[in-house]
Amino acid sequence: AQSVTQLDSQVPVFEEAPVELRCNYSSSVSVYLFWYVQYPNQGLQLLLKYLSGSTLVKGINGFEAEFNKSQTSFHLRKPSVHISDTAEYFCAVSDRSSYKLIFGSGTRLLVRP
Amino acid sequence: DVKVTQSSRYLVKRTGEKVFLECVQDMDHENMFWYRQDPGLGLRLIYFSYDVKMKEKGDIPEGYSVSREKKERFSLILESASTNQTSMYLCASSLRGQGRRELFFGEGSRLTVL
Predict the structure, then answer these.
(1) Nearest CA in chain A to B49
(2) Is A42 in Cβ contact with B107 (below 8 Å)?
(3) Which residues of B52-62 are buried (b: 16+ CB within 10 A; e: fewer)?
(4) Which of A7, A43, A87, B1 has the fewest Cβ atoms within 10 angstroms?
């Protein structure tokens, strides 16, 4: 069964510094990959998705992620974070044959002034 | 914009009570999902539905049931609530079809069972 590992439960970073949130998935079969963000007391909203094509995916709010098939990874990056990026970030994967999304345990990004 | 609306943001119930969590989406999506969110565990799928009156168990269906009588509405039912069902419940919907896995989420229902 597919699984997703987010290696860091919390990432503290100073404002305007770069950040990388790590995500690995278990299976190398064809997959769709997603990053979602959750602000306090809200539902999840989509940051970006990889369906096919270019392995570098750009999303909203200046985030991007790179699909690496050989390493089964889909790390999220931002070159310069803002206080407003403080939130929880979830990586998710779906086998192309299934409607189900499997989520990682989440990474809390804490941006400090 | 797609809107997924969960009827109650916060609920407090007693052990043994029957609990209904309602979810409505307004974009004619075929698929609907109920997830449970707990700290450190991420989101775990309880049930999903790919059509009216159709449902499939997710990873943690025990203690839950669902109902989908209309395309836009998907209800989660706790027949006899227990304290270990205290959690945040998230409803989501998506279109059917290849490349259409993006989920649209409601704002969540935080349930406390005393």
Answers:
(1) A99
(2) yes
(3) eeebeebeeee
(4) B1
B30 close contact with A: CB closer than 8 A: no
- Chain A residue with CA closest to B89: the answer is A43
Whole-number Cα distances in Å, B50 to A74, A78, A85, A87, B95: 27, 35, 34, 31, 9
Q: What is the pLDDT of residues A74-86, one digit of tens each?
A: 999 999 999 999 9
What does B48-80 look like in DSSP terms, one character per residue? EEEETTEEEE-S--TT-EEEEEETTEEEEEESS
Report the mean per-residue pLDDT for chain A: 92
Range with the poorest average pLDDT among A6-10, A18-22, A41-45: A41-45
The closest CB to that of B42, out of A43, A94, A103, belongs to A103
**Total count of residues recorded for chain A:** 113
Beta carbons of A106 and B103 less than 8 Å apart: no
Number of helical H runs and strand E runs in chain B:
0, 11
Q: For B35-50, how does the pLDDT look when each residue is reduced to its tens digit (9 = 90+)?
A: 999 988 899 999 999 9
What token pair was written down for B48? Answer: 């999903």
pLDDT at residue B2, rounded to an integer: 64
Q: Give chain B's mean pLDDT.
A: 92
User: How high is the pLDDT of residue B25?
Assistant: 95
